[in-house]
Amino acid sequence: MRNRNLIESITKAVEGLEFGLKYERNIKIQAFIALLVVLFSLILNFDLTDKLLIFMWCGVVISAEFFNSAIERAMDVLSEEYSPKIKIVKDLSASAVFILALIALVSGLLIFFKYLSRLI
Ligand SMILES: Nc1ncnc2c1ncn2[C@@H]1O[C@H](COP(=O)(O)OP(=O)(O)OP(=O)(O)O)[C@@H](O)[C@H]1O
C-alpha cells in the first residue's frame, strides 16, 4: 500500500486535496474565502509583498484545516463514541486552526484597509 515513487505520492496528495474540497465543510468555506481574498488582492492591485502575504496566509490556514480534518478523521477511526480524551484532541486541533485564522484575519484586514483607504 506504500507509494512507490514521487509521482504516486503526488497523486495521493491530489486525491486528498480533492477529498477535502469535496467532503470537508470547513475546507470548502476556507477555500471559498481564500479565492475571494486572492481575487480582491488582484483587483486592488496589491504590491508583490502584500500579495505574497495574502497567498501565504491563505495557504497556511487551508493547510492547517487539512491537518485538523485529518486529525478529526483519525480520532473517528479510533472511536465514534463520546470520549473526553478525543474531545480534547479534537478541540486542541481546532484551536490550532483558529489561532492561525485569527492572525490571518487581522493581517488581511490591515492590508485591505491600506488599499481601501487609498481609494477613498
Ligand atoms: N468522539 C468524540 N468525543 C467527544 N467529543 C467529540 C467527539 N467527536 C467530536 N467531538 C466534539 O465535537 C467537535 C467537532 O468535532 P467534529 O469531528 O464533528 O469536527 P467538525 O464538525 O469538522 O468541527 P471543526 O469545526 O472543529 O472542524 C470537537 O471539537 C469535539 O469538541
Automatic annotation (TrEMBL):
- Note how many cofactor molecules are bound and how: Mn(2+), Zn(2+), Cd(2+) and Co(2+) support activity to lesser extents.
Give the record's GO CC terms: plasma membrane
Q: Which residues form the active site?
A: 65 (proton acceptor)
Q: What keywords appear on the UniProt entry?
A: ATP-binding, Cell membrane, Kinase, Lipid biosynthesis, Lipid metabolism, Magnesium, Membrane, Metal-binding, Nucleotide-binding, Phospholipid biosynthesis, Phospholipid metabolism, Transferase, Transmembrane, Transmembrane helix
Q: Which residues bind ATP per the record?
A: 24, 72, 90-91
Entry superkingdom: Bacteria
Q: What is its main location?
A: membrane
Protein family? Belongs to the bacterial diacylglycerol kinase family.
Q: Which PANTHER family has this protein been placed in?
A: DIACYLGLYCEROL KINASE
Please state what the protein is called.
Answer: Diacylglycerol kinase
